[in-house]
């Protein structure tokens, strides 16, 4: 079931210090993002804006190849949360292999990153000419001895590390989630 945004949706910080989205009708969506990583106050209550709705539908469209509707909605809402509230990040490209072809991603595009001979599937939630902010659609991956990138974890990387998942890797994306 795909959720349709409405005027009653509202962002807030829950008691556990995670960003939450009140979907109305006693339904809540809890993001994995703790308040300390976000630009929002304790008492924040912000409506799901027109811009949020646009991002949500952009992400849903790009996630059409993801296996289940519930996983698509989860990824799209987490993408909106990161795009709207995440604190600015510095690129952490050193975890990923440079690619021969420079790829300039589009908002919501599913891209790949290569880390220690493992391919990660990511969704772009913010772009610039040099770097992109992405969320992971892959299972938790250990980037080094002290850093793990969880599913839906946000990371900013230089665009020279990204590769397109169009074509030959489309089947792999369907298995994500």
Automatic annotation (TrEMBL):
Which UniProt keywords are present, listed alphabetically?
Cell cycle, Cell division, Cytoplasm, Septation
This chain's protein is named Cell division protein ZapC
- Where is this gene product found? Cytoplasm
Q: Where is the Cell-division protein ZapC C-terminal domain?
A: 88-166
Its function, per the record, reads: Contributes to the efficiency of the cell division process by stabilizing the polymeric form of the cell division protein FtsZ. Acts by promoting interactions between FtsZ protofilaments and suppressing the GTPase activity of FtsZ.
Q: Where is the Cell-division protein ZapC N-terminal domain?
A: 3-87
Q: Name one GO cellular component term.
A: cytoplasm
Q: What is the lineage of its organism?
A: Bacteria, Pseudomonadati, Pseudomonadota, Gammaproteobacteria, Aeromonadales
| BP terms from Gene Ontology | division septum assembly
UniProt family annotation: Belongs to the ZapC family.
The family database entries (Pfam families) matched by this protein are listed as: ZapC_C, ZapC_N
């Amino acid at each position: 079931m795909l959720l349709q945004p409405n005027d009653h949706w509202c962002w807030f910080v829950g008691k556990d210090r995670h960003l939450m989205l009140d979907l109305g009708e006693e339904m809540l969506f809890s993001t994995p993002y703790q308040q300390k990583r976000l630009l929002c106050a304790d008492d924040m209550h912000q409506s799901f804006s027109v811009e949020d709705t646009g991002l949500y539908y952009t992400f849903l469209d790009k996630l059409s190849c993801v296996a289940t509707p519930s996983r698509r909605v989860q990824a799209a809402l987490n993408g909106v949360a990161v795009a709207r509230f995440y604190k600015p990040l510095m690129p952490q490209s050193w975890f990923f292999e440079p690619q021969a072809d420079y790829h300039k991603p589009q908002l919501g595009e599913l891209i790949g990153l290569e880390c220690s001979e493992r391919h990660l599937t990511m969704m772009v939630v913010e772009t610039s000419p040099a770097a992109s902010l992405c969320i992971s659609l892959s299972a938790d991956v250990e980037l080094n001895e002290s850093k793990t990138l969880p599913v839906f974890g946000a990371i900013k990387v230089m665009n020279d590390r990204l590769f397109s998942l169009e074509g030959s890797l489309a089947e792999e994306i369907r298995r994500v989630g």
